[in-house]
Write a structure and sequence with these properties.
- With 282 residues, the protein is mostly helical.
- It folds into three domains: 118 residues, Four Helix Bundle (Hemerythrin (Met), subunit A) (Up-down Bundle), CATH 1.20.120.1810; 60 residues; 79 residues, Winged helix-like DNA-binding domain superfamily/Winged helix DNA-binding domain (Arc Repressor Mutant, subunit A).
- The chain has 13 helices and no strands.
- Helix 2 runs antiparallel to helix 3.
- The chain is elongated, with a radius of gyration of 35 Å.
């Protein structure tokens, strides 16, 4: 059984829920026989039936984690992978039902997915941090119902962690990173990106800017053509070259002093500026 190929392709939630209802639940004897066939003979058809008969339980478990802002289809997909891992490792001789064993795997895969995708900054990887991450909201809600307020100290005592850990996790949960590509309404092709104002230049503005650049480039070429050959070579080697040459290198080429090269460069630049200024005022 390949974990890379889930038993059903999830396209839309309603369609998926309708499809998994077609799979009958297995009684204890049927489940035991199928599990033995897969464990002893590697029968993939038996494994497929075990998985499909329990897909509805994955949906039920995934639904418990909707409050974390993840897409339901993604939670189900991760839970399905957990279910497949459970089937792969399930020992029917222990006398328990598959779903009782699989619950741990399903929750583990869903929780790991939420922790990994919650923020660009890791929430934490220790078991204590994961427990705090998933129990914090539940404990806060329970205390709010009982006392009418959320007290960090009481939460810390209830979860057996430090006050600062509760406060830090609360801040992280409140400041979750949001993808611009996330759907604002599940199943609707409408993302956060589409709600942002487009401040980029419009087509007319871009056309005007392109025309300005082309005109300036033409004016620079005209100004450059007004220089003599030596001035052009010095300006090209000193200003326009990807690796500009030194004054001394050019002095050696022309057989003149380094200072003379600097003077020619300065004079040529002044001629360019004068010509360009004249075009602007024309």
């Amino acid at each position: 059984m390949s974990l890379a190929n889930p038993p059903l392709l999830i396209d839309s939630l309603d369609h998926y829920l309708a499809r998994i209802k077609q799979f009958d639940l297995l009684d204890r004897d049927e489940e035991y026989a199928l599990a033995c066939r897969y464990r002893r003979l590697g029968d993939l058809e038996a494994a497929h039936r075990l998985i499909c008969s329990n897909l509805r339980f994955v949906v039920k478990i995934a639904n418990e984690y909707r409050g974390y802002g993840m897409k339901m289809l993604d939670l189900i997909q991760e839970g399905n992978i957990g279910l497949m891992m459970a089937v792969k490792k399930f020992d029917p001789e222990r006398g328990i039902r598959l779903i009782s064993y699989a619950v741990w795997w399903i929750r583990a895969y869903i929780q790991n997915y939420i922790v990994k995708t919650w923020s660009l900054v890791k929430i934490g990887t220790t078991q204590a941090q994961k427990k705090l991450f998933f129990k914090l909201k539940q404990t806060q809600a329970a205390l709010l119902r009982l006392t009418g307020q959320e007290n960090a100290e009481e939460i810390a005592q209830t979860l057996d962690v430090r006050n600062d850990e509760v406060e830090e996790m609360s801040r992280r949960l409140a400041a979750r990173d949001t993808s611009l590509d996330v759907e604002l309404i599940e199943g609707e092709d409408f993302t956060l990106m589409e709600t942002l104002a487009d401040n980029s230049p419009n087509q007319e503005t871009r056309l005007i800017e392109n025309e300005k650049r082309h005109r300036l480039a033409g004016e620079v070429r005209q100004a450059f053509d007004r220089l003599n050959d030596r001035e052009q070579k010095i300006i090209r080697s000193r200003i326009f070259a990807e690796s500009p040459r030194t004054l001394q290198e050019l002095a050696d080429d022309f057989g003149i002093s380094r200072e003379r090269v600097r003077q020619i460069e300065a004079h040529a630049l002044n001629k360019l500026r004068g010509f360009l200024d004249g075009l602007e005022t024309a």
